[in-house]
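re: the backbone from monday

yeah here it is again, tokenized this time
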């Protein structure tokens, strides 16, 4: 399968890269790799069009300086490429997230994820913090929503931590299929995977815990949908944004009746916990 790669240089990086990824994600781009100077984005050649960047608004913004180069990439073995760059995530020696080709550890929670393209977003910091949130809080017997589940790492961990049932949802078909595979790989039969966005969520309180590791714009846009699904006293955990975004996320959450409980930070990325 042939791909077109766009290699963007972004100034300033924060929040430019996050906004650019969010906008490109609305197009046919299916994989992103953050770099020291910006981000690389990849789209299947069959889905590429000459005007694919035409209505990417950040490219016209005078608040950012963004340049890019484009290249054709022939017949890349993507799994092999991810294997070269896939590093396991070790959270306090308690949870170890690895690929099948990594050695098994003695960690209490050993999660095996096939490193397909849905994993390669460069957001290990947010995964790490959300894992810590799950480890630090009670999941026993809870009904959980993992919104924007990606590879369903978080859904799998909550199931391992005793959640009664977990719904994992992602808009991307690759993530949907990969999540089904990963849930089975980790013997998590109580995870149900759905393909779609926040519009498919139930409209009545159902969940004890909501996990949303998504970018700032989507969080702000879809927060009402998440809150409607939460039971009284339910918890919601956000990540996928920078320290600069904390005030806007907190303001929106508190205006909607959520109570702030804690904040984790790692390399300028943030995770926030709220209670309904």
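seq for it, each position gets an aa:
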């Amino acid at each position: 399968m042939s791909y077109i790669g766009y290699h963007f240089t972004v100034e300033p990086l924060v929040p430019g890269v996050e906004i650019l990824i969010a906008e490109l994600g609305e197009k046919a781009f299916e994989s992103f790799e953050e770099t020291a100077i910006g981000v690389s984005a990849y789209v299947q050649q069959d889905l590429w069009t000459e005007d694919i960047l035409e209505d990417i608004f950040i490219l016209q913004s005078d608040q950012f300086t963004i340049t890019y180069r484009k290249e054709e990439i022939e017949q890349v073995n993507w799994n092999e490429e991810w294997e070269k760059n896939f590093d396991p995530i070790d959270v306090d020696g308690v949870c170890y997230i690895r690929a099948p080709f990594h050695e098994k550890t003695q960690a209490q929670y050993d999660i095996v994820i096939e490193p397909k393209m849905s994993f390669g977003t460069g957001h290990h910091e947010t995964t790490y913090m959300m894992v810590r949130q799950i480890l630090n809080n009670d999941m026993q017997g809870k009904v959980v929503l993992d919104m924007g589940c990606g590879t369903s790492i978080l859904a799998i961990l909550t199931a391992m931590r005793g959640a009664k049932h977990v719904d994992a949802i992602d808009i991307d078909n690759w993530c949907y299929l990969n999540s089904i595979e990963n849930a089975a790989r980790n013997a998590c039969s109580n995870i149900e995977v759905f393909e779609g966005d926040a519009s498919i969520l139930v409209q009545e309180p159902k969940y004890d815990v909501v996990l949303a590791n998504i970018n700032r714009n989507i969080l702000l846009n879809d927060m009402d949908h998440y809150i409607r699904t939460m039971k009284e006293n339910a918890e919601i955990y956000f990540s996928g944004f920078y320290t600069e975004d904390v005030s806007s996320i907190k303001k929106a959450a508190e205006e909607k009746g959520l109570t702030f409980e804690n904040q984790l930070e790692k390399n300028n990325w943030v995770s926030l916990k709220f209670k309904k």
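The first helix runs from residue 13 to 25. Confidence is low (pLDDT under 50) at residues 118-122.
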